[in-house]
Structure formats: structure tokens, C-alpha cells
């Protein structure tokens, strides 16, 4: 072991064993070099490596201090991790921690004076200029004046469903299933919502039109690409038809394009691109493609909603944190975001292909599944008489984690037979084995059911 590696190992062991705790100061570079009989450059290099791992931090003219020893990776000290089809955050292995750290440091310098005052409710103008440029890459052409920076796109959804709209209507239409945070916003605000079913073949457009025709629907909420949880993406023809219906029946659409950046098909457009009437409100998040902890998103709003949305945003949080906005601005303007997206698209495309192939190969007859394109989501509908809860418990014993999707439905649409799969944090080499174990679990439960055995 080199002296450099020896220094790092020794400090990590001190942290693990409690010799160094959060906030403790590390030995000075000179004293540690004398104690270990090595050069000061070796100690500096080791401390810099520990800093890059976010285990220690420097204080000018004071030295280095421990950040959080509880977060030291416990490599090689436990059983093999479970295959996790539940977690839905971005792939941890390719998150741009270092690049974004540089952007954050620059933002502290650029916006240090702004930290002593409240910022623009709508978001930093310079960031909105960068966002308008970036949106052009996904065929959303707008101006900075129509862009509103929000604390995660969920904030925009939560505020919009309660706002009065120019059409004077008050009810919502939402895809079924849909993500739980949207359903929770509907429950919390006691908004009446109608569901429109999304299957492996897409949305029931006839049902959607019948709802629009009633004259009660203010908003239709849709995830147009890489739907959560089905993974479905609408065709351009389907998107155009939905926009036509919204225009014909005076309904607004919230188009949640949270994964649109991952679409590798340049011919696929958002609904926003087909709307010239201001009926489509476009929302976007940076959580799934970058770092969920950023809590940054945007909404592109028609002029008639600007004032009411600003008032609602002000009441919610005054403004989105300036440092996060500034860091994202720098990240975008330096081209880091586009470089990161190229890696993301390749990885998630490969994951989607592996998931599709594994489902085709292993899943027993009677198990329906949606074919993912994003490398994030798919759903399995189990053959009767199995339930998602049965399978979840059965697979946990095998070290496979899955999530039943019953909480992603309005009460009248709820199903007990649907499993949501997320492969965003599953290593490519684990996907095949994971689906094989799921298929094995389905077979075991089906056989047990036929024999009248309670098999958990």
C-alpha cells in the first residue's frame, strides 16, 4: 500500500471506529507528515481526495474538519445488495456531483450579494434566458418572460390545480394511473378529478373527449413522454389530437415533460409544439435527469396566468433558492448539462432495451407489461388470482424489491394486481436476473394457488 493510500485508509478507519467524529479537526498537514514519516505533498493529496469524497472540508487558516463519518461507504462489509426496482431517482453512478459542485462554487461568488436580499419571484432573469435556450432543444420555443422557475415541478402542479383559470371551470382530468405526488395534491386541495385510463396501447381518447364535452374540465394533466408509471410515450398524432380537443372544448393541458430530455427520437415533439392558442402549460423538472436534491423545475405559462401564478408562488415560498438557480445557470451556460444528457440517454436506452428483452424472455403467459422507452418505468399486471402485495412480500425474501402501484390510482380506478418497476437505479447486469426472479416468483405463487397453498 502506498503512503498516500495508507493515509486515506487510516483516516477512514478512525472515522468508522469513532476516533474522528463530525466536526472534529484533523491533524495538521505538517504534524501528520512528521508522524507518518512522509512528505507534506502526500498528506495534501490524501486530504484533497477525502474532500472530493465529501468526508472532510477545509476551513481557511484553520485546517480540515470531518463532515459526516456515518456516510462512509461500507465496502465489502455486508451481504449483496437487493435488486431494487422501487427507487426511482436517477442513476447514482452518473450523477454530475463534481461538475455541479464547481457550478455551485461559482454561483456563490457570482450571486454573493443576492444572498442578503429576496430574489425575483419568477426566478433569476439570467437563468430564464439560459432555460429558454435549453428548451429549444426539446422543441419548446418560448421567451424568458413566460418561464417561471419553481421549487421542483411538483410545486408548479400543486399551485396550478388550485388557481382560477380563464375558462371559469373547476374540475380536473388526470391519467390513470399517475404519480402519487399529483394525487396527493388533488386530495390535499379537495379538487374533483376524473380519471382517464392509460394502458399499454395508450390513452382512451374517446373517454377524454367525452369528459371535455361536459364543459366542466378546467385542466387535463398528462405526462406526454415516458409516463409514470407505465413508461408509455404518446405518438405525435395522439399529442396533436389532445391539443385539438383542448382547443375545441376550451380546456387547458398541463404537459409534464419531466423526462423529455432523455428522448433520443428527434422526431418526437412535445404537445407544446402543436399549440398556438396558449392552452398547453409546459412543465419540466431537473430532478430525474440531474440531482433530485436540487428541487428545481420550470413552468411555461400563458400571459393570462402570470399574475395569479406569481401571487401563489409568493405565498408558497417567496422565491426559489438563489444559489441553486445560479448553479443551474452556470451548469447550463458552460455546456455541462448537454454533455451529461448524452451519457444519460445512452445508459437509460440500454436499460430500457435490457428490461424489454428480459420481460419477453421470462414473464409467464398472462402477465401483461408495458414496454419502456425511457429506462425508468414499466408496469406489470399480474395474472389472477395473484395480487401485487403477495408478490411484493414473496420477492422480498429473494432479495428483489418491487412496488405495488395501487396508490397511483384514484379510488374508482384502483387495481390490486399492478406492480411498478423502476430500473433507473438497477445496474444493467442485474436487470436480467431481477426479471428472471420476478418471473420465478409469479410461477411459484401461481402453482401454490392452484394447490391451495398459502405461499409467502
UniProtKB/TrEMBL annotation:
Which residue spans traverse the membrane? none
Q: Which UniProt keywords apply?
A: Aminotransferase, DNA-binding, Pyridoxal phosphate, Transcription, Transcription regulation, Transferase
State whether keyword tRNA processing applies. no
Q: Which domain of life is it from?
A: Bacteria
| Residue intervals of the HTH gntR-type domain | 1-69
Q: Which cofactor(s) does the record list? A: pyridoxal 5'-phosphate
Under InterPro entries, the record lists: Aminotransferase_I/II_large, HTH_trans_reg/aminotransferase, PyrdxlP-dep_Trfase, PyrdxlP-dep_Trfase_major, Tscrpt_reg_HTH_GntR, WH-like_DNA-bd_sf, WH_DNA-bd_sf
What stretch or stretches form a coiled coil here? none
Q: Name one GO molecular function term.
A: transaminase activity
Q: Which PROSITE patterns match?
A: HTH_GNTR
Q: State the family it belongs to.
A: In the C-terminal section; belongs to the class-I pyridoxal-phosphate-dependent aminotransferase family.
Q: What is this protein called?
A: PLP-dependent aminotransferase family protein
Q: Which organism is it from?
A: Paenibacillus solisilvae
